[in-house]
Amino acid sequence: MLYVAGHRPTTVQDHVALVEIDLTGELMIAAAAASEDRLSPDRIDEVLEVDGEDGDRADGVPPRRGTAGRCPG
Questions:
Q1: How many CA atoms lie less than 13 Å away from 28 in the CB half-sphere?
Q2: Between the CA of residue 67 and those of 7, 12, 31, what are the distances in Å?
Q3: Nearest to 38 by CA among 27, 54, 49
Q4: Which of 3, 4, 15, 70 is deepest in the core (most CB within 10 A)?
Q5: pLDDT tens, residue by residue, 51-61
Q6: What b/e readout covers 33-67, taking b as 16+ CB neighbours within 10 angstroms?
Q7: CA dihedral of 23, 57, 68, 43, whole degrees rounded to 10
Q8: How far is CA 19 from the centre of its chain?
Q9: From CA 26, how far away is CA 46, in angstroms rounded?
């Protein structure tokens, strides 16, 4: 008898991973649109919507963003 491992339901989502993927995409878009070789720490903070001092958003919750805040390319 052949045993096949069960699959997780497709409705299960890792919300932290999805936010991290979204933020990585935002950084990639900002880097591609930048005229300089590297994004400055201030620009990275702006893209990630953090205050820059301790790296946290004011409300402590990562953003769930769509197209808002994207740099024109």
A1: 6
A2: 32, 24, 16
A3: 27
A4: 70
A5: 866 655 544 55
A6: eeeeeebeeebbeebbebeeeeeeeeeeebbeeee
A7: -70
A8: 5
A9: 11
